[in-house]
Hints:
The protein is mainly beta. It has no helices and six strands.
Amino acid sequence: MAKFGKQLRRPTDRRWKPRQPVTLNATLLFDNGTEIRCAIRNVSPSGALLVVPSILGIPNSFELRVDDGATHRVEVVRRSPNRLGVKFV
């Protein structure tokens, strides 16, 4: 446990490319026709962090359609209760 006045160091960032913070709205498009709205919180040339209502039922790969019209095929590389780390494929 850290003593008062000392800060804990964060582990080294192991991402291949640095990510830029963004606030974008998007839609997850599944092969079965299901759509789920999400928010993109950071992005890099190789991937993004998505905030979703729940990760339940989200497959390992899907189309990500950003509200600006761009569409990307992505694969999930990390999951937490309401966040997905995805890489562009």
